[in-house]
Design goal:
381 residues; single chain
Length: 381
């Protein structure tokens, strides 16, 4: 499932500017092949030469997300878009690069593994706008000929619906999330950029009340930003493991014991149901991308809510364009082989997370975002 599949019949280069507004930004283009991901895979290949063939296939596979998670990393935007420009020049085909923009103040308020660098009592919202979003927008404008897809602020707005009882998730934080995401939409809505807001996943928001609630929150934020025409749609399953299809949806015991009678037992069903909620909220014509980097094993977890470095996970479907109605692409938004977090490692900005010691997690893992060779080996084996 990880073969070097192209994004479709690629378009020939046309002029020096692209416009993806109202279009699938992946359609007709090749996926960007991230050289940093290729280098990490090479290190793993040298450690486990018996997996060389599989890893070599992954090295040809574009479509992994580039995570911009703090102000220091804003400089990678230029670096990777320069590399994408070089790929475009060498192949003679247009290239789409996927960025994950992820640095709201009080980020990831319901967990610890991915806590961020900005805090509201230290002028975090203004810093987010001027020192993070504005700089990313400036970088995007320097590459008008490059198609860009943005996954905007994973886990942020869904927290508003389900995590009011968490100490760090309060009204002040949620208002900053609303204002920050709306500002990011306004600034990043450029002709060459398609924006996908993060919409959680089936195991988090699949129940009827949660879907209806998140549709209302999205409508509020999109209106605050200036309207639905500024975004392409939504990203789901980011960094998660929910399969595209539940292989045995009629298993009554599994419906109750594992899924908790969630009507969205898999990610494609979730997208279908969520689309209806969006339409009811007046958000019509929304498109989706789904993270399929690690969701190939529908029986990987004993508990659906376990999310950290799941031991029995496998690679999911390769990045591909228009795989299902209303799905712009399957993308490996969280690159397979990057850690979700650690239960034992702690720094001032990234704390340990007890979820990384779940029954389904790898026993020892590095901090979120670092290369996790042992997990890659598990995904491949």
């Amino acid at each position: 499932q990880c073969g070097g599949q192209k994004a479709a019949e690629s378009t020939q280069l046309k002029g020096d500017q692209v416009n993806v507004v109202g279009q699938n930004p992946y359609s007709g283009n090749d996926f960007f092949v991230n050289p940093y991901f290729v280098e990490n895979l090479q290190k793993s290949k040298e450690k486990n030469p018996e997996l060389s063939d599989k890893i070599s296939q992954m090295q040809k596979q574009g479509g992994t997300g580039i995570w911009v998670v703090n102000r220091e990393l804003v400089g990678v935007v230029d670096r990777f878009l320069t590399a994408a420009r070089e790929q475009r020049a060498q192949s003679g085909r247009n290239v789409t690069t996927t960025f994950v923009v992820y640095n709201l103040p009080e980020r990831d308020c319901s967990a610890n593994a991915s806590a961020g660098e900005l805090y509201l009592d230290q002028d975090g919202l203004n810093k987010y706008k001027s020192e993070f979003i504005d700089r990313i927008a400036e970088a995007f404008r320097r590459y008008p000929e490059m198609a860009i897809s943005v996954v905007l602020e994973p886990d942020s707005l869904p927290n508003i619906v389900t995590n009011n009882g968490v100490r760090r998730c309060n009204d002040r934080v949620f208002q900053a999330y609303r204002e920050g995401v709306a500002y990011a939409i306004q600034k990043l809505a450029l002709p060459n950029v398609a924006i996908y807001l993060d919409a959680g996943h089936a195991g988090w928001l699949g129940w009827d009340n949660n879907r209806a609630g998140v549709a209302r929150v999205f409508r509020e934020v999109i209106d605050l930003a200036g309207g639905a025409h500024l975004i392409r749609g939504f990203a789901t399953n980011v960094s998660n493991y929910t399969p595209l299809r539940e292989p045995d949806p009629s298993d009554e015991r599994r419906k109750s014991a594992y899924y908790g009678y969630n009507p969205a037992m898999d990610e494609l069903t979730y997208v279908d149901l969520l689309q209806k909620n969006f339409q009811q909220a007046g958000l019509n014509g929304m498109k989706f991308i789904i993270d399929t980097g690690r969701n190939g094993n529908p029986r990987a977890r004993t508990v659906w809510g376990n999310w950290c470095n799941v031991r029995e996970a496998t690679l999911g479907a390769a990045p591909q364009v228009n795989p299902e109605p209303n799905i712009d692409a399957y993308v490996w938004i969280k690159p397979p082989g990057e850690s979700d977090g650690s239960a034992v490692y702690e720094t001032p900005t990234q704390g340990k997370d007890s979820s990384c010691a779940s029954a389904d997690s790898m026993a020892v893992s590095p901090v979120a975002g670092e290369w996790f060779h042992e997990h890659l080996v598990q995904l491949l084996r």
